[in-house]
Amino acid sequence: MSPALLVVPVAAPLAAAGVLVLAGRRSPVLVRVVGWGVSALVLAVGAVLLAATVEGQLTTARLGGWPPGIAIVLVADVLSALLLVVTSALVLVSLVFAAATGEDDGSFVPLALVLSTGVYGALLTGDLFNLFVFVEVMLVPSYVLLVAGGGARRLAAGRRYLAVNLLASTLFLAGVGLVYGVTGTVALGELAGAAAAPEVGIAGAVVLVALAVKAAVVPLHSWLPGSYAAAGPAVVVLFSGLLTKVGVYALYRIWSVVFDGDRRWLWLLMAAGVATMVIGVLGAVGERTMRSVLTFHMVSQIGYMVVGLALSTVAGLAAGIFFLVQYVLVKAALLMCAGAVEVTHGTDELARLRGLGRREPALAVAFGLSALALVGVPPLSGFVAKLALLDATLDAGQHVAAGVVVVVSLLTLTSMLKVWNAVFTEAAPEPGGPGAAGPDAGPGQPGVVVAPPATRPRVRPALVAPALLLAILAVGLGIWAEPLLAVADAAARGLVDTTAYVTAVTSS
What we know:
This protein has helices at 8-22, 28-53, 78-101, 108-124, 128-147, 152-183, 198-215, 223-230, 233-257, 266-285, 290-311, 314-345, 356-359, 361-375, 381-395, 399-425, 461-479, 482-496, 499-507; strands at residues 59-63, 72-76. It is an all-alpha fold. The protein is globular. Residues 126-412 form the NADH:quinone oxidoreductase/Mrp antiporter transmembrane domain.
């Protein structure tokens, strides 16, 4: 396979964004064709890379012909190729959803393409400094996307998001500098197992803490629910599948390569994973809007992936990787359902939404299937992921963690039922009856239901279709889970035995 293929995911979205910006006033159709086309191209490249690496082969490219230590090294193994497929698919479906919500006017598509460039580069880079650079490329457009549309709430959320991420980025850069200062290199291949030395371990720990902030691991998570709850509907879908997941990927990669899965500190990772699961789901139970419930669940679901990392066994890592893949699709579907409700009815507050089940059957199906997958009900994808994680924790003797997985799943079911009942199954009030909208009621008026269902607008099919597609994928990944389980197992084996990855990076 040509190493030049690795350049496409980094260069194509960035070039397309540049062309769209230079074009100035442009047709919305042209913008969509370029954005969707480039994302589809990256998805195809990711699929080719996944097919080429799934048997253990790696593909590397050294950009610019510079000598090792200076050149930008891109490397694709089965883990990075798998996540390239998932994230590019998420970008593509997010752009389609943005077209349905009307958010893709102005600079949305160019900014989303630049953001995706940072994501793809972070997944493919083979050294710590370029990982930092690509993460920053990812974050800069995210600041603009978060506050797009203005409003005091979004600006406040943007300030919080900016402040926390700038602090984390500073810490990240300081950690990379410390690693270079004590080892003389930032190439991941040359840092394999280097954290066994105390000074490298401390420097690497600084990097891990910075990445834990970006992944929203408890107790470094508080920026996420408030920031994501204020973003536009399509923006939060885009963020949900990309930003924190890059942090999780980097934790998996650095812990496996630089720390060589050091078992002395796995208890600390396990404690963080369990706390993230519990605190995230408890926060979700107390929320009152669809979006805020789902964003707190994002924190909780990160905990499952950290638990997989904390096991650092093939079974545990494979379960965490399977969980990550299916979760990206399921969470995006749920947030699209919330966005469709918000765009159509002007609110996603649970107390204002009743009786949508019969009036919006496609939306109810998309939300119901995705919620059941999130909870882990058989035969959906979430069930396969949680069962694999449960088996891995029991095999590792982590009985407390296994119990927490079960309890948190039950609490997830509770909060999902709360949303389902409030939005889809509770009967709407009769006109003039208790809880019905008054003659002057509107979406912004507190304390009333917006309107009886018969007088409400209908959710447009274009708003529901992307969520329905992802919900059907969740069903498919549950019923036909074996291929993804096999890929996740191959990726986990590459993390446990990093010889091939280290050889590929150091010899490129």
